[in-house]
Fold this protein.
Amino acid sequence: MSADAIFSAGFLLLLLCYSGESCVQKHVQAQVPEKMLPGYVVCKVDLALCGVRHLHLTSTDPDFTIQRDGTVSTAQVTTVPGSGKYFWIKVRDEEHQRWKVHVKLSSTDPKSQTSSNVVHKRFKRRWSPPPFNIVENDVGPFPKDVEVIASDSNVNYTVYYTIDGPGITEPPIRLLTVEKETGLVKIHGPVDREMYPNFTFRAHAMDRFTNKERDKFLPVTVIVLDVNDNAPEFVKNSLFFSVQEHCNPGTSIGRVNATDKDDPTTDHAKLKFSLKNGTDLFKIDPYSGIISALTDTLDRETQENIYVTIEVRDMGGEPNGLFNTAVAVVSLTDINDNAPTFTETLYKGKVMENKADVLVLRVPVQDKDLKNTPNWKAVYEITKGNETGNFLIKTDPVTNEGLLYVMKPLDYEKQKVVNLEVMARNENPLVKTTPVWNKTPVEITVENEDEGPEFSPSVLHLKVKENIPNGTTIGTYSALDPETSSSKGIKYYKITDPGSWINVMESTGELKTAKTIDRESPLVYNNTYNITVKAVDETQKTGTGTVFILIEDVNDNEPKIVNPDKVLCLKDNAWGSTLLEAVDYDQPPYSGPFTFALGKEAEGTWKLKRATDTSAVLEQTVDLANDIYKVPVQVKDLQGSGEVQIVTVRVCECVRNGECKAQSVSRKLGPGGILALLLAPLLLLLLCLLCVFACTTKREKMAFALDDADGSLFKSNSEAPGEEAKAPFIIPASGLDTMDSLKGGYLEHQNSFSTAGGGGGGGIGGFGQHTIQRDSMYQTNMQSHMINTLNSGQYGTGVYGGTINKFTSDMSTIDRWTTTGMHLQERMINLHQKPRERYADDILKPYGVEGTGSPAGSVGCCSILEEQNTLDFLDSLGPKFKTLADVCTSKMDGNRL
């Protein structure tokens, strides 16, 4: 049988022997040179499908080594015969699954080395030997021979060898040395693989005579072979687990993790886990370290934390493997597998009748679940005996007890003992147990109390029509003593009666009307008026009751127009309208729908149109002037009851918001408007005539005091009016003195006049010599007036000429007195002959303005005269002069007679 046939048969037998799906290729073929030096890369096994598995790779042929990445290379000088070379690559994963890869090498001539099927060596070398191995932590003795390095250059040259790099000049320093002549590499001490799993140094072949490097330096890889010198160690934070109590068998609890510093590709780091206790509760996967529950009997109430000892051993659990132990903690979490239980079979309590909001009883329970969790907290419920709602039960959040309260008073006369049934449950439902909550009976004894009278019923409903006569009996509201079931000796009183509409008979409880009952009163709500009544027995115990009086409506209200003052807006000469709304406080059928009708005097001018059941639209039917109109409108309810009401309609042109805009004259005036326009000025004229008549007929107010005649200024150091202003008018003896008195005021020296004729005494020049300083036009007019007056010659006995001379101080005093006397005589005659022409009391008076004015203010109703340089001041002489004039006049009349 040929070699190929033998290989095929063996390969088939191997496939039959190994089960399981392989993650590596089945066989590898490669063409290589007939002779290969150490380190020559032969081929590579594809391990990509194996994922992250830890694989252990070995070669059945010692001439070849295989790296962890699947690279196959020669370990020494190897010759491939013409028939080829065969060997196996053994593969084993962490779960002890095994596969084999068949490697077939065939030699070829050098020309075939260019074929794509040939795996080439990494670079051309002329060195030997290949990479070598050392064992970690070797025990010696040292130094030890490791390997000989040699270069082909020693054939032509005399060379010596040197090495440098890791292990020599770099850490680990001075671990290796080389003999220069022979190339023998020696090791001088142990090395730790966990620190230096491998390192590569450089070998040099140097010319002995020239010290030149005769060959390219050779990188030499030193592989440190692992020994099982490290025990596996647990990862500490992977030893704490929690699982729900009573979990199902097979529930995963957690995974224990451990590490080993040895070579993971060897059995030195192949770990196996086992349990040393708790095997009745848990199990652990020996290679993955996953812990799972073995039973559903894990009970937190029995043991909350379970401690399990776990062992981890390398070498796949072999007895000679190194191991370590640790304690894992499994905490059981709580579930609601325990219902609250009552501590007694019957609970009893007492309560006084008529008491409310009173704690009667505490009901304790026990619960084995975790405290202060929803699995432990109790919720209580009264399942029997509380149909009337007298009781309430709550949970005490601290003690978890049930607190039983009486919320509504109990009546001893009706029920002396109350039997209840109370159930306790948790906030969470029960699991892993029978879902039944516990119940317990509760007995409450009601204690008797002397009570006051009670009204029956507690709320009395009566129906009454409004407006019934006073004194009408509408019902009787009586009470009974619960102890005797009798009304004997009970008296009745009102507690509340907002309108004082009802009288309560003290001895009988009879209810009678005291005032008119009005359904539309604001005291009535929803047609109901209520009062409260108090009953007092002989022991002064009291009871109260309420009476609801339902008031039935009668037709005692007529419809009323809500807003009888309306504005009707005119726009673009179109007729306007306004809405009339009415209200009736009665209820149907005594209210709407309403009937609207116009009075006869409004027909032809207005019309009504129904808008709703309670409103109508008032429209004009003719053109109306802007005015106010009174429109009679009758509104009747459904029963025909109603009266005529006056609606005031103002017709106008409107601005925004329906407001009338101001107008000087209406667009159209009727007779009344025209009469009103004419009447106003007539009344004003009449008023003026009345005032004139009143002013001219009061004789006692005609004359003015001589004190206020002229208002001429005199010398005075007083800022208020001095004595000079109050003295009788006296013409100063010298005009110069007068001028001096005017220098500080607003009066200035004007012109004086001298006589132009020969008659009489000296010329008159004292009147009109001062004027208020105003504008030039006023001064000119005043001067002209005074010149004309003096030139007329009406004063004195002489004839005055037209020449205007400057006032001089040599004018005689007698001339001034003569002129004044002439004027006074004329005024006395006028007082009797022309009473209507006399001046009124409040005639305007001239006053000089000094500075900013006198602090005393005005001394008359008016202080300005149009002409003040004349003798007109004599026309306003006061009562003193009137008396003097009457005396003088009487004498003169006597002389005439």
The domain at 454-552 is CATH 2.60.40.60 (Immunoglobulin-like).
